Amino acid sequence: MFKGMYNWIDERLDVTPMWRDIADHEVPEHVNPAHHFSAFVYCFGGLTFFITVIQILSGMFLTMYYVPDIINAYYSVDYLQHQVAFGVIVRGMHHWGASLVIVMMFLHTLRVFFTGSYKAPREMNWVVGMLIFFVMLGLGFTGYLLPWDNKAYFATKVGLEIAGSVPWIGGYIKELLNGGSIVGAQTLTRFFAIHVFFLPGVLLTLLAAHFFMIRKQGISGPL
Amino acid sequence: MAHGHGHNPNEKVVYVGDSRIRKPSSVKPAPPDYTSFPGKSEAFIPNFLLKEWMAGVVMLVGFLVLTIAEPAPLGYPADPLNSSFIPMPDWYFLFIYQLLKYPYTSDQYIVLGTVLIPGIAFGALLLAPFLDTGKERRFYRRPIASSLMFLSLIAACYLTWVSWNTYQGELEKNGVVPEQIERAEKSKESIEQGKGRYIYGREKEVALVKADDPAFSIMQKAQCIACHGTELEGGAGPSLRGIGDTLQKDQIVDTITNGRNNGAMPSFKDKLTSAEIDQVATWLSEQKADAAGSSE
C-alpha cells in the first residue's frame, strides 16, 4: 500500500531523484566512526544539528506556557518548571541544550579548522558556518533574558551596555534592542521576538545553505 | 525549447505539449556507483546515519542525565533596584566579559575591548579561508594559523577561568548564596514544613488566629515581640504565624522553657510562670493556616 502511495506521488512529483540525492550519496570511510574510532570528531556537526532540532522542539513546547511580559514571565517559568508535567525536563533540555549546542558547535569548528577543511573550494561554507556560530550566540544572549529573573535582567543590562559602547552606531544598536532607553517591558518582548522568530528564521536559512554546500562539494578528503 | 519534437534520451524529465504534463519515463535513477571512493564507503541513509546515531546516543544519554540531575536554575524575579546583585553572563560570554575588566580595555579604552580585539579575532576567524590560502591541510604544516588558534583558545579559556574564579571569590567575600540555589533551598524547606512551594513575591501571609486572646498580651509583656515582630510576623526571630502547622504544643512549651539554637531563642522559664507558658503555647499551637483562613 505504501509502495502504491509512493508511486502515485512519484509519478506526479518525481521525488525519487531528490530522495536518491539525500539518501544515496556515499560517505567515505575516513569519517565513519564504525571503521576508525577517531572519526567521531566528524560527528560534531551532526550532533550540533541534532541538538538544534531538540532546541527547536523543546522551545516550541516552552512557548505553550511562557508569557513574554514583565509581570508574568517569571511566574510562567516558575509554573512551567514546577506545576506542568515534565515541564522541568523540557525547560532543562532547553537550558542545558543551549550550552551543549555551543560546545558541540565549538568542537565542530575546531575539527574543521584543524583538518584544514575550510580550504578551497569550501571557503563559502566556512563563512556560512561562522555566521551560524554568531546566530547561535545571539540566540543564547536573547534567550538568557526570557525567564526575567535577576540573573537574566542584569546580564542583559551589562550586555546592552557593552553594545552601547561601540562607537557611532552603539547607541542605536542599544536603543533598538532595548526598545527605549531602559531594559524593561519592551526589551523583553523584543528579545522574545528575536529569540523565537527572527534568529531561528535566519538560522534555518543558513543551515539550509550549509547543508546544500556540503552536499554539492562533498566532505573533505582524508588528510 | 523544442520539447515536443523528439527528446534527448538523456533528459529525465520529458514534457509533452503542455509543459506541466510529463511523459512517464521508464528509466529509474540508478543508485550511485560506489567505486569512485577508495575504502569502505557506504550510503548516507540508513547505513552511515545509524553509525553516527551511535555517537548521538552517547551524547544524548549524557545530556539527559544532566537534565535530570540538575534542574534549570531560576532566581528571583528581576528587580532593577537590587544594587547588590552581581551580574554574570552565561558561561560562553565570560571570556569577553572578563576582557573588558582590564585597564587597557575599559574606560577610555573601552573601544579596544568591545570592538577592536573581538573584531580582529572574530573577523580573522570568519575570513580564515582567505587568510590561510596555502594548499597544506595538516595543522602542523600550517604553523601560523594553528598557533594563532591555539593562542586564542588558551586566552579564552584563561579569561573564562579568571572570570568564574573572581565571581566565586566575590560571592564568598560578600557571603552571597546565588539566588537560584537559595531559592531551591527555601522551596525545599517550605515544602518540608507543609507550607507548599515557596514562590517569591507570592508568599501567603497567615493571619493570627484569635488575636484578642490574653496569651498574646503575655507575649507582648515578655518581649517575645522584640524578635518575633509586633504582629508575630517575624523579625530577628522567625515568624510565628501558622506555627501550629509545624510544632506541637509540647514542643512549643519546650522551646519557650529551655530556649533553642544555643540561646538564639532564650529560655523564658525565669520570666514566665509555667502556667503562662502553657497558656502561650496553647494559643500558639492553635495558630494554623487553615484556621486562619476560615476565621477571616
Classify the beta-strand content of chain B into a percent band. Answer: under 5%
H/E series of chain B = EEEHHHHHHHHHHH
Through-space gap between termini of chain A: 47 Å
Count of the separate structural domains of chain A:
1
CATH class of chain A: Mainly Alpha
On the 0 to 100 scale, the average pLDDT of chain A is 94
Q: Into which percent range does the helicity of residues of chain B fall?
A: 40-55%
Low-confidence stretches of chain B: none
Q: Flag low-confidence runs of chain A.
A: none
Rg from Cα of chain B = 36 Å
Output mean pLDDT of chain B. Answer: 85
What CATH architecture label of chain A applies?
Up-down Bundle
Function (chain A): Component of the menaquinol:cytochrome c reductase complex.
Main location (chain A): membrane
Membrane topology (chain A): Multi-pass membrane protein
InterPro entries (chain A): Cyt_b/b6_N, Cytb/b6-like_sf, Di-haem_cyt_TM
What does this 3D model show about the protein?
- The complex is a heterodimer of chains A (about 220) and B (about 300).
- Chain A is mainly α and about 220 residues long.
- Chain A has a single domain (about 30-215), classed as Cytochrome Bc1 Complex, Chain C (Up-down Bundle).
- Chain A is about 70% helix and about 0% strand.
- Chain A is globular, with a radius of gyration of 21 Å.
- Chain B has about 300 residues and is mostly helical.
- Chain B contains eleven helices and three strands.
- Chain B has a two-stranded antiparallel sheet with strand order 1-2.
- In chain B, β1 (about 15) and β2 (about 20) form a beta hairpin.
- In chain B, α7 (about 215-220) packs across α10 and α9 (about 250-260) crosses α10.
- The longest helix of chain B is centred in the middle third of the chain and has 31 residues, at about 145-175.
- Chain B is elongated.
- The relative contact order of chain B is 0.06.
- Classes of the chains: A mainly alpha (about 220), B mainly alpha (about 300).
